[in-house]
Specification:
The model has no long low-confidence stretch (mean pLDDT 91). The chain is mainly β. Helices cover 9% and strands 33% of the residues. The chain has one domain: OB fold (Dihydrolipoamide Acetyltransferase, E2P). The chain contains two helices and eight strands, in the order αββββαββββ. It binds zinc ion.
């Protein structure tokens, strides 16, 4: 049975159900750690959690704690959304972030970056937003507080 959410203001319908594959990932988010899987055969990392390496198909996966830093691969600006709480947040950024751990890519919000300031190549750092006792959402903030894109 799902535990009650703390008073985060996050609607329960947005809180992911923790699957067996993702238990370690979400436990890490609650501790403020970005846990990703690394393939013991090809050495590549990946996210979301899976039972097979998406790079080579190996079953030999291990969990590592990422350093939390990444680079914006691409992004989009969501300018309209009909469902709360996103409706109130628009316009907002959703980005693909390549972690420093090769092979791992996140889809996440950049809640503290203005749409006009977003850049491909921008260095970002993971932050954790509690959603329930079992889950925290991963967002990314500029790694450099000035938000200046990497050269
Ligand atoms: Zn592999």
């Amino acid at each position: 049975m799902r535990k009650e959410s703390p008073d985060t203001g996050i609607p329960k319908y947005l809180i992911p159900r923790v699957t067996p594959e993702a238990t370690e990932f979400f436990a890490g988010t609650v501790r403020g750690e970005l846990r990703v899987q690394r393939c013991a055969d090809c050495g590549q990392h990946h996210h979301y959690p899976r039972v097979l390496c998406p790079h080579c198909g190996s079953e030999h996966l291990e969990w590592v704690t990422a350093n939390g830093l990444g680079t914006v691969h691409s992004f989009t600006v969501i300018r309209q959304h009909g469902i709360p709480p996103f409706k109130e947040q628009a316009p907002y950024l959703v980005a693909l972030v390549d972690l420093d751990e090769a092979g791992a890519r996140f889809l996440a919000q950049l809640p503290n970056v203005a749409p006009e300031d977003a850049r491909i190549g921008m260095r970002v750092r993971a932050t954790f937003r509690p959603a329930s006792d079992e889950v925290a959402f991963v967002d990314f903030d500029p790694a450099d507080p000035s938000g200046v894109a990497a050269p």
